TrEMBL record:
One of its GO terms (molecular function) is glycosyltransferase activity. Keywords: Glycosyltransferase, Queuosine biosynthesis, Transferase, tRNA processing. It comes from Parvularcula lutaonensis. This is Queuine tRNA-ribosyltransferase. The keyword Amino-acid biosynthesis does not apply. The gene is tgt. NCBIfam families: Q_tRNA_tgt, tgt_general.
Length: 374
């Protein structure tokens, strides 16, 4: 018998929340950060090491996997969990953001988005129904409705038109999900509306009328800046159900995560930990550092001597500096592993602070210590 999807809220501290999402493939402790496995792999890090960092769930990408190796092939080979060797929960996005940002020659209609692949120029059509079909073929435990992610800045009129299309697509996505998915899987609706308060409220209310077991906040971290993003969350999370998980898509830096948790967000994903790692940037409790800098050439200290992560504890900054200067693959691998581990330790620290009723002090202390400079 498969375990149905459910969410339990354990403790609140101000707007910050901690709880658990139950799936048939395991429990997700919230607030949760999902490492991004775009093409069926978390870049430069083995799945066993991702698991060792404390990650409960990873993210896969519909757009990339539908193009290569194709969702049908992944299904034939046993599904994304077996294919990638990740046995925990997987969330897949709808592919909508990548179609808007990566694909070529896009044509948006009521039916969906017609586009050409950025890989080989082949022609494809992504509709709400096809997006759900792909996510079901992949075997995703948590799926996303197809939506349009509008650019920023955008006019109120254009944003509203996009928002209404996403609401109509949400209805079609849910209908397709009910026809194709298993009882253990879940579909999230995506709140849009750019930076406009009335539109965010309109989107949230419409999605709740349709009914979803979880709600995502989309259309942020697209250039509006941290202050504006927090302002949007300030008026968006209060109109979302308290008994359903809230997912802020594509965010972000550690200070973004802390500020969003303060505003009631439960789930996050972002490519930043591994992208930073590939470019020599290590995230630490005191902020990011660039190990390629000359100041670390003879620095014999590790990134975090108290960490239980080998990448953080066992290698000196001097050695990491050497790896990057020498162009050795091991450098990006170690920093990506370290960054993923740091992000999971940050989430664990926030969960503990909320549970113990000291989150406001934790957030203040973190902001005072953490400096975003390289």
């Amino acid at each position: 018998m498969t375990t149905p999807f459910s969410f339990s809220l354990h403790k609140t501290d101000g707007q910050a929340r901690t709880g658990e999402i139950t799936t048939s493939r395991g429990t997700i402790r919230t607030p949760a950060f999902m490492p991004v496995g775009t093409a069926g792999t978390v870049k430069a890090v083995q799945m066993r090491d991702v698991k060792a960092t404390g990650a409960d769930i990873i993210l896969g990408n519909t757009y990339h996997l539908m193009l290569r190796p194709t969702a049908e092939r992944v299904a034939k080979l046993g599904g994304l969990h077996r294919f990638s060797t990740w046995d925990g929960p997987i969330l897949t996005d709808s592919g909508g953001f990548q179609v808007m940002s990566l694909a070529q020659m896009r044509k948006l209609t009521e039916k969906g988005v017609e586009f050409r692949s950025h890989i080989d120029g082949s022609k494809h059509m992504l509709t709400p129904e096809r997006s759900i079909e792909i996510q079901c073929l992949l075997g995703a435990d948590i799926q996303m409705q197809l939506d349009e992610c509008p650019p920023f800045p955008i006019t109120e009129e254009a944003s509203l038109e996009s928002l209404e299309l996403s609401i109509r697509w949400a209805r079609r996505s849910k209908q397709a999900f009910e026809e194709m998915a298993g009882p253990h899987q879940a579909l999230y609706g995506i709140v849009q509306g750019s930076v406009f308060e009335d539109q965010r409220k309109r989107s949230a209310e419409a999605l709740q009328e349709i009914g979803f077991p979880g709600y995502s906040v989309g259309g942020l971290a697209v250039g509006e800046g941290r202050e504006q993003m927090f302002k949007v969350l300030d008026f968006t999370t209060p109109v979302l159900p308290t008994d359903k998980p809230r997912y802020l898509m594509g965010v972000g830096k550690p200070l973004d995560l802390v500020g969003a948790v303060e505003r009631g967000i439960d789930m996050f994903d972002c490519v930043l930990p591994t992208r930073s790692g590939r470019h020599g940037q290590a995230w630490t409790w005191d902020g990011p550092i660039n190990v390629k800098n000359a100041q670390f050439i003879e620095d014999e200290s590790p990134l975090d001597p108290e960490s239980d992560c080998p990448a953080s504890r066992d290698y000196t900054k001097a050695y990491l500096n050497h790896l990057f200067r020498a162009g050795e693959y091991l450098g990006p691998m170690l920093l990506s592993w370290h960054n993923l581990d740091f992000y999971q330790k940050l989430m664990a620290a926030m969960r503990a602070a909320i549970a113990e009723g000291r989150f406001a002090q934790f957030a203040a202390d973190f902001r005072a210590r953490h400096r975003e400079k390289s």
